[in-house]
Amino acid sequence: MGQTLSEPVVDKKSASGQDDRVLFGVSSMQGWRISMEDAHACILDLKPEGADSDSDRPTAADLRLSFFGVYDGHGGDKVAIYAGENLHKIIAKQDAFKEGNIEQALKDGFLATDRAILSDPKYEEEVSGCTASVGVISSDKIYVANSGDSRSVLGIKGRAKPLSFDHKPQNEGEKARITAAGGFVDFGRVNGNLALSRAIGDFEFKKSADLPPEQQIVTAFPDVTVHEITDDDEFLVIACDGIWDCQSSQAVVEFVRRGIAAKQELQDICENMMDNCLASNSDTGGVGCDNMTITIIALLKGRTKDEWYKAIAERVANGDAEFRGPGIHHRYDDSPDDYDMDMGRGTRIGQGLGGRIILLGDGTELSSDSAESEMFDHDEEDKDLESQVNKNQREETPAPTAASEAGTPSKGAAPSASQDSPASDKTEKSESASKVTVKQAADSKPADAEKSK
């Protein structure tokens, strides 16, 4: 956990947008951290580079795609900002993307982004890194690519289905790769330092010149999950660990559903979630003190916004949920406008608070005097995540295509030539719904800031 402020920065940067297929809301908050190191991107219509019409899309209009990404930086914000501005562009430049092979394009694009940063003289001495959890949505599929411990979770009739797996150094497959590459895991950290085992950037852990990029101590190579959209699927949530460290995947899905049933806008639900996770003080051991970013993407499936809201509300009212999971704890007046939070009690995470409200998957309210730790166990949820995400994706890293076989050169060695590095300098993006939205604080983290998340 990095340094904290005497008071949290609770100003939020939020945006929303929609087309005929998806509706999204996104918000980010600096919180107790001394700087903001998260970034995100929301693009309703991701096209191949240079595409001006549907005929230029992969397999034409049948593969119209939306892109959503959350990037959690550590050791600084530069790599996270770069990823937020460029990862989707680099993915769209891959040959596999143009051929309609989105799964391979995501894998190639993550590695190509790493190469682009490494080969850019502006980042020659850069030591920061970032997670990346992205969702690409077509008319009938969701493609999720994940590197690090940000997370993507699908809400299915009140049940949380993980579409990504948290990459932690102590996980068996991750630890095997780390040790095979000459590293070690100490106190749950890579070489006693980094608290996650995959990331974009972090080039100090990618110096083995005789190993391909996906076999380095830390790799940007993502797991990719492909989900066939069904009528039961309601929304996708992508968030950084500032959210997931405070709430289980199931609790987040229940929170979102209840907000939808109360007719709250998606970006307002995002803001309320962050307020709910924010620690009341910075003495909680880091829980509730991190930067926070959360994106909610509604799967409209041919419905209007109002029709989608009504359908979810009816499911909640009818108790139409497949799972009654761990509770979520907050105080609010169940109105479309806002949560009536008890800031002295309701936002404290991990404390034994009496008289809280537990919201089940069907909207049922129960009073509880139980401590948060009794409601759900993050270790148990991690096991559940492992069991639901394809084992081969975790423990067996597929060979990259020819486009990525050049590898990630170590610093000090001549990097391989890459056409994936964008020519333009980093610029702040518009918050227009159809453009990339990158969130960052005006202040930057000091040079000696902690890198280990």
Per-chain topology:
Elements (H helix, E strand, L loop, with lengths): L3 E15 L3 E12 L4 E9 L18 E10 L3 H16 L1 H4 L3 H18 L9 E2 L1 E6 L3 E7 L3 E6 L2 E4 L9 H9 L4 E2 L2 E2 L9 E2 L21 E6 L4 E7 L1 H4 L4 H13 L4 H12 L14 E8 L5 H13 L11 E2 L25 E4 L5 E4 L3 H4 L2 H11 L2 H5 L58
Antiparallel strand pairs: 1-2, 2-15, 3-4, 4-5, 4-6, 5-12, 6-7, 7-13, 8-9, 8-14, 10-11, 14-15, 16-17, 17-18
* The CATH homology group name: PPM-type phosphatase domain
* Count of β-strands: 18
What does the radius of gyration come to? 21 Å
Mean pLDDT: 78
The N- and C-terminal alpha carbons lie at a distance of 6 Å
As a percent range, the share of strand residues is 15-25%
Strand count, sense and barrel status of the largest sheet are: 7 strands, antiparallel
Silhouette: globular
Please bin the fraction of helical residues: 10-25%
Structurally, the number of domains stands at 1
Q: Describe it for me?
A:
This protein is of the alpha+beta class and 453 residues long. The protein has one domain: 4-Layer Sandwich (Phosphatase 2c, domain 1), CATH 3.60.40.10. The chain has helices at 78-93, 95-98, 102-119, 172-180, 241-244, 249-261, 266-277, 305-317, 372-375, 378-388, 391-395, and strands at 4-18, 22-33, 38-46, 65-74, 129-130, 132-137, 141-147, 151-156, 159-162, 185-186, 189-190, 200-201, 223-228, 233-239, 292-299, 329-330, 356-359, 365-368. The strands form 4 sheets. Strands 3, 4, 5, 6, 7, 12 and 13 form a 7-stranded antiparallel β-sheet that branches. A 6-stranded antiparallel β-sheet has the order 1-2-15-14-8-9. It has a 3-stranded antiparallel β-sheet with strand order 16-17-18. The longest helix has 18 residues, at 102-119. The radius of gyration is 21 Å and the shape is globular. Residues 322-378 and 390-451 have low confidence and may be disordered.
